[in-house]
Amino acid sequence: MRRLRLLTGGESHGPRLTAILEGLPAGLPLDREALNIMLRRRQHGFGRGGRQSIEKDEIEVSGGLRDGRTLGSPLVMHVNNRDWVNWQTVMDPWEVDGPAAAQRAVTRPRPGHADYSGGVATDQLSDQRNVLERASARETAARVAAGAVCKQLLDRYGIRMRSAVLAIGAHSAFEGPPTWHDLEKVRHDSPLVTPDPDNEDVLVESVRAAREEGETLGGVVGLVIRGVPPGLGAYVHWDRKLDGRLMQATASIPSVKAVSLGAGLEVARGTGSKAHDPFIRGEHGLDRPTNHAGGLEGGVTNGQDIVVRAWFKPIATLRKGLPSVDLATGEAGETVWERSDVTAIGAAPPILEAVAALVLGDALLEKLGGDAITDLDAAWKTYCARIGPWWRPDPARTS
Ligand code: EPS
Predict the structure, then answer these.
(1) Using a 6 Å cutoff on CB, does residue 41 contact ligand 1?
(2) Is 208 in the pocket of ligand 1 (CB under 6 A)?
(3) What spacing in Å lies between the alpha carbon of 135 and ligand 1's midpoint?
(4) CB of 344 closer than 6 A to ligand 1?
(5) What is the pLDDT of residues 73-102, one digit of tens each?
(6) Residue 109 Cα to ligand 1 middle (Å)
(7) How many Å lie between the centroid of ligand 1 and the Cα of residue 46?
(8) Residues 6+ apart with CB under 8 A from 105
(9) pLDDT at 283
(10) Which of 134, 251, 322, 396 has the fewest Cβ atoms within 10 angstroms?
């Protein structure tokens, strides 16, 4: 990121996860309940494992905030792991009663997880717990905390998000790239957070069947971002292009194996005249009757809704096990199962929102700058005035 810096720390069964977000302007008011709602959404979803009934993720702040307003210093946030009490001896930071590594050592790498690749990289194959504890998707709790803060920054200027699960395994709840309107009925508390909450039974059944078979499932998640002004990002350098930055952030979510912007997946098979979104004269400047580009052209936002889809592979920890090799003995053996989600896809919408909010928040600050929120407000007004002939913000949301 160019204006913001985010560092997360902490292991899945350690005492807590920490997110340090630096680069926010001073004076931004934060709504604590809205931050915690994002964290609760990340714990949700039919098919989650036993861990989510132990945890009650909530944000604690230990720096960078006073009276609910950012100070301009690093914002330091924590999410405590309630499960820590059950893992203290295994995950003790200091050697107290003999090496913690001797307990619950993991020596058979799970195909699809970082156990082997990360173990080779860091010379920790003899106990892959040293890798998997950090590689766990539990880390996304810290990213969601930071992303939820950026969502509040974006919301100040009328930039809003809707997201949903579009498919689970072979079952689709929605085909193709969604529009803002397609996601208006999404309920964050429906079992699988699809665009059609009253018709999730088939998908719920498929998760139940997978559970019975000791299987896991992946799926597709969609996100639409409305109210983004044109002109964020850059067309000049590969590493400043916003489409690349958004796709990188999305692909960094655990289990994501493919990302598409707009109708990216579909237009590749068609012709140019069908792929591109015509310009027509509209009531307020220019209109685009279609949005195949998904809000980005040439690495720069174009004022249309940003549309992202992410494809998640099935969870790598299967109750029925997968073929592996015990690297302590060299013998063939099945992977070991302790506990896992059948699918975590219901938790993915807020994670996708969070990473997109980090990227867009960064792009907004890159464009408008300012150490104080009052600077940013003034720069936003000036920028909106300049692009006024072509694009207007939501009048209800402009400070
Ligand atoms: C997660 C906590 C983990 C898993 C999941 C995400 O809990 P535990 O490992 O204690 O059961 O439920 O992690 C993974 C899917 C993974 O691949 O690592 C969470 O809080 O999101």
Answers:
(1) no
(2) no
(3) 10
(4) yes
(5) 999 999 999 999 999 989 999 887 676 666
(6) 16
(7) 14
(8) 126, 127, 129, 328
(9) 77
(10) 396
pLDDT of residue 399: 42
Six-digit token string for 240: 């400043």
All residues at 6 or more sequence positions from 244 whose CB lies less than 8 Å from its CB, including other chains = 238, 299
DSSP H or E stretch at residue 325: strand 323-325
Q: Whose CA is nearest to atom 1 of ligand 1?
A: 138
Task: Domain ranges for the chain, please list them.
Answer: 5-397
CATH of 5-397, one of 3.20.20.190, 2.40.30.170, 3.60.150.10, 3.40.50.720: 3.60.150.10
| 396 has pLDDT over 70 | no
- What are the helix (H) ranges across 263-305? 264-267, 272-275
Closest approach atom of ligand 1 to CA 255: 17
For the Cβ of 137 lying below 6 angstroms from any atom of ligand 1, the answer is: yes
The reply to whether the predicted model has a pTM over 0.85 is yes
- Can you spell out the DSSP letters for 29-52? B--HHHHHHHHHHHT--TT--THH
Residue type, 199: N
Pairing of strands 323-325, 300-301: unpaired
Task: Tell whether the model's pLDDT for residue 289 goes beyond 80.
Answer: yes
